[in-house]
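Subject: design request, 246 residues
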């Protein structure tokens, strides 16, 4: 297990800003002796995953791109997330869903509920809901590109009778915090906790949500926030985002 963790640490040392590194830089980034790092780097080089450049630096090889292409063609966000959303539903005893943006709506692409959740039919896969209010809508909006966000903010402001500046301010706070909570904004008596799911491009095209009766959700709100944020990070990591582990 330690060997695998070290290999992963080396591969994840490369970034878009620093796509080639010296052996010493790699050793410093993963916190290992230079000699130990050299042995791992040599193994990765022989396997074709690292390339040694003329300036003695190392970079990732095209072999990783080939593997990434295979992943993209065979795995969907739903398949990647399902084990984690199932665990989250079991832990919270509430309805868990993954949402994404479709035009000016959000659409549920997967939902998981335990037998204990009376709200298991509230969110249905394929259901389109206007991006107006609620934790999922606001989380998706908070992480949208600025160009696409403008009409959504105007839509939210009209529907909730607020000015656009206050909507933008709320979305900025959600983006900085990394999660959102809503109580009865879309369905009276229903609360939700939501966090963004990031991809390899560091963009958030999806979000993870837990919804349930406000009377239950308020009692365990802090714990649900912790669980949702952790689960969203786990899904993001599996989806290619550069997110470290605790």
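Subject: RE: design request

Done. Sequence follows.
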């Amino acid at each position: 297990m330690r060997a695998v963790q070290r290999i992963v640490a080396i591969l994840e040392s490369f970034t878009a800003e620093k796509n080639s590194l010296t052996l010493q830089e790699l050793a410093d980034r993963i916190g290992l002796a230079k000699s130990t790092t050299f042995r791992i780097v040599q193994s990765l080089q022989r396997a074709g995953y690292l390339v040694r450049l003329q300036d003695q630096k190392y970079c990732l090889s095209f072999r990783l791109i080939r593997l990434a292409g295979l992943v993209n063609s065979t795995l969907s966000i739903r398949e990647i997330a399902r084990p984690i959303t199932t665990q989250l539903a079991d832990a919270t005893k509430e309805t868990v869903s993954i949402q994404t943006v479709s035009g000016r709506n959000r659409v549920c692409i997967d939902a998981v509920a335990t037998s204990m959740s009376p709200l298991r039919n509230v969110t249905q896969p394929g259901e389109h809901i206007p991006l107006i209010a609620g934790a999922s809508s606001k989380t998706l909006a908070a992480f949208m590109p600025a160009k696409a966000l403008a009409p959504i903010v105007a839509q939210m402001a009209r529907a909730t009778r607020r000015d656009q500046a206050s909507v933008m301010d709320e979305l900025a706070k959600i983006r900085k915090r990394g999660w959102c909570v809503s109580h009865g904004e879309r369905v009276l008596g229903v609360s939700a906790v939501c966090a963004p799911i990031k991809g390899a491009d560091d963009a958030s095209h999806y979000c993870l949500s837990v919804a349930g009766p406000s009377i239950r959700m308020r009692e365990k709100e802090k714990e649900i926030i912790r669980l949702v944020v952790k689960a969203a990070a786990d899904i993001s990591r599996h989806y290619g985002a550069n997110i470290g582990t605790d």
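The chain has a mean pLDDT of 87.
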